[in-house]
Design goal:
The longest helix is centred in the first third of the chain and has 18 residues. The protein has a two-stranded antiparallel sheet with strand order 1-2. It is built from 6 helices and 2 strands; from the N terminus they run H-H-E-E-H-H-H-H. The protein is mainly alpha-helical.
């Protein structure tokens, strides 16, 4: 019984710790401005929205921290592929990756954000 309770408590703490934070508390300390956007080849990327879309569509195979898993690591994918090439892979798949894991605006946001990962 104690092991089960400890497992539930540990699991809850892990989930809450991974999900916590958020917000723009550090934006003012870092000079304010657009702390949540980055420039990619296609324009500005809303980092928070792109990361959320990535977590929903890609993280189960490529890892929540881009480190890989069932799919390859994406932590430096921007040095290998352009934003358009990444979008093409998201739309059409590659190797064992199925097509259209993310679609429309989500696919474009993810591609733009991944293109900044070098």
């Amino acid at each position: 019984m104690k092991k089960a309770l400890m497992a539930v408590l540990f699991g809850s703490a892990l989930v809450l710790g991974a999900c916590g934070g958020g917000g723009d508390e550090g934006a003012e300390e870092n000079g304010g401005g657009d702390a949540g956007t980055e420039e990619s080849g296609g324009g500005e990327v809303d980092v928070a929205a792109a990361e959320q879309a990535y977590q929903e569509s890609c993280a189960s195979c490529h890892g929540g921290d881009l480190s890989g898993g069932a799919g390859p690591a994406l932590d430096s994918i921007g040095s290998k592929y352009s934003e358009d090439e990444i979008l093409d892979i998201i739309k059409n798949g590659k190797g064992s990756m199925p097509a259209e894991q993310a679609t429309g605006e989500d696919a474009e946001m993810i591609a733009g954000w991944l293109a900044t990962q070098e």
